[in-house]
Structures are given as C-alpha cells and as structure tokens.
Amino acid sequence: MMDRETRHYSVGGFVFGLEVCAPYSFMECTGPVLERICRAAMGELFPVLPTRAGDEVPPRTFVQSRDELPESYSNFTLDLSQYEPFRVADDMQELFTLTVKAPESESSMEGETIVLNVDDTLPSYTIGRKGETTVFRFKGSDGLTTAVLTLCEDSRHGFFAPVLKDGKAPSCRPVGFYVNMALMIMFTYNASREGALLIHSSVISHDGMANLFLGKSGTGKSTHSRLWLDFIEGAQLLNDDNPVLRFHDGSLYVYGTPWSGKTPCYRNTSRKVRAIVNLKQAPHNRIERIKGIPAYSYLLSSVSSVRWDRRVMDSLTSTLSDIAMTVPCYIMECLPDEDAARTCLSGISSLSE
Amino acid sequence: MKLRKGFVLRDICGERVLSAESDKTINFTSLVRLNETSAYLWESLQDVDFTVSDMVDLLCKRYDVTPEVAQKDCEALASKFAEIGLVEE
Fold it and tell me: Which of A149, A285, A312, A337 could connect to A343 by a Cys-Cys bridge, CB 3.0–4.6 Å?
C-alpha cells in the first residue's frame, strides 16, 4: 500500500492538488463507476435530476450501491469519485494543495483566536487564527470537532486531519464530506485572487448558454431547474449547488464542479452565462430585470461567507460588481409549475430593458 | 460618538457603498449606499470620537456651503447613521 498519493484536478480552469496520506487512500473505482466518470469527464449528460425537498437523497458520488464498492474498501477509503471527471496530469502548475493526513488527537487551541462561528450550514465549523495560519474546526453531529483544516499563510497549502475520539477515527463518509468542504474553502481563497468564485446556485444550460437560479436554501432552485428540464426543450442540468463563475475574454462563464450538493451532477463543462435569476416563492409567476446595487446584493448573499478576510473580499466584491454590471440579472417571483419555467424563459429572452 | 468598526467603504457598480465585513458586523446584512458627501465624512471620521460640530467643520472645509446648511445636513446624517446602526453603542 502506498504511503501517500497525489492527484490533480482542474475546476473552473484552476488546477489543484490533493495529497492523501496513509492510512487513507483514494478509492479504486470499479467498472460501472468508471463508466459514469468517463461520460461526465466529457461533459456528457448523466441522467440525473435535481433533488427537490422531499425527494429521496441520491448517492453523493458516482457509486450508486454497495456492490459497486471495491474489495479494498475500508474505513480509510475516501470515495472522491466525483472529482475524477476533473482529473488532469500531475505535472501541471497548481493553484493550491490540500494534504489529507492520518487521524490525530485534536490539536490544542492555545494561541488561537476564534474569528467566526459558522453555524448556518451543516456541518458547522469555527474559523480561528493562530499567527499567520487559519484553522477550521468542523463539528460533527455530536457538536465535537471531527476534523481540522489548517491553512498556511498564503492559503496555498492546507493540511486536513480527522480527529480521534477515544482513540478511534471518524467514519470515512463524513470524512469525505469534510474533505469536500476543505477543498471548497481552499478553492474560494485561492480562486478569488484570479477573479473566480463559487456561487450557491442551480444551473441550467439551454440554447448554447447557461442560466443561474439563485435563492436561499429551500427557496426552490432545484425545483425550478427541474421544471426547465421537464418543460423546456433542450434544457440540461449543469450543476445543482456550487458552480464556478469566472470572466474570460470579457464574458462571464459558469463551470461544472465536483460540488453539486444533494444532486450528483458532476459535469466537466462550461457555458457562457445568459442570465442570473433570483427566485422568490410567490402565488404568481412574474419576472423583473434588476441592475446595479440590488443585483450585486443578491449575488453577494449567494456567495460563501469569507467576509472577514480582506484580501478575498477585495477581489470578490470587485468580480461581483463586474457581474452585476455586465450580466442580465432578474428577480423572479414564482410558483413551482410549468408556467414558471416558461415565464422565466420568456423574460430572459426578451430584448426589452 | 464613534463610527462602528467592521465596515469597508467600497466602489460597487459605480456607487460608494458600506459593506459589513467582520464577525462584529456579521448580522448586518444590508449594504449602505453613500453619496459623495457622506462617503467623505465616513472616511474622515474613522477611529475618531466626534460631534455634529466636527462634521460641520469637515463639510465647510471641503464644500462651499454655509454653516447653517451644513449644520442641518450633518444633524440629519448623524441621526441617519445612528438609525441604521453605524454608530458605536
């Protein structure tokens, strides 16, 4: 068994490295899993529907049942198969690296100042500063720290270690979940420097471009995407939770990522953005164009909170301001019905200002 | 009075805007749009204990305005800042 293995992935055009150290290892992908990965790697449509409230939660990765797990599977196997469609060669210049280490006892918090307690997501976590390093402590359902991410000064190197509880390592499923969070956090810090960001949104590609649906959790983004898939010809799901936005040659593009929330939609593809639509539940279907500060405000509330990091906020606010000023943004009050999708399509296609 | 900490004055979509950006202002979810005058006062009064009279002095120094008009404007602005929650308790 290998002592450590490093793989590289490209998301939104940014390459990052993931180094996994013993006893952890990358899961070996079996036949059916590999087939799904291949298709997703080509940006191909994988038959997956956005998960709506009340739906049974599908598997989060490309593994759809226990018998698709390899023989080598153990409590130290990390099923990160959703990253495989984004895999690239190992000799590419990387933006950042995350190292997953062996489980250890929780490190002392001496000298660490808690900067923020993020408890509006699951899992909740604290952000602390210890000199020039930033420490993220992810809490399990028992409220205790289950994994720790330590970011070095320039955020380009991160170290992730699960925490031993009574000498035992946590189950590998939550560990995999925390590794995803760690990678998303590192992506946010590093990609912001290059003007790219992660946004909480469901994305439908249609007619050669993409439409983003924004709104607080539970507002019905996935439901609205589902309506497009059901009723609008040619609509396809690009991502259902956290796509990447990035300007390229003056136009805004949205990218598929390994981070799609409850819907396993992992497509290595991108589209130019046609419209950004903020959804609100209402007893009618109505879409309205918004601009400037109001548009910016909605965008800001859909981007992960790193408000206390000045460097990240400087780039993030600048990029969001550019988006608000160049990409058509809308507010849509809607019902979860066919007419909502049609009203939306009609509203964003309309040439009137 | 003193201005509350944790806000960053930014140029967003061509406007000057106060953005809440610290754990101390994490519950402050609105953006505050400032016109040129209020932005100037905001920047000048950072980290300082000030009165309306100080605001009036700053305005008169920079703009061609009578002290009476400045007084009215500054009273209104100070009251607005307090109302929105931009003044330290």
Answer: A285
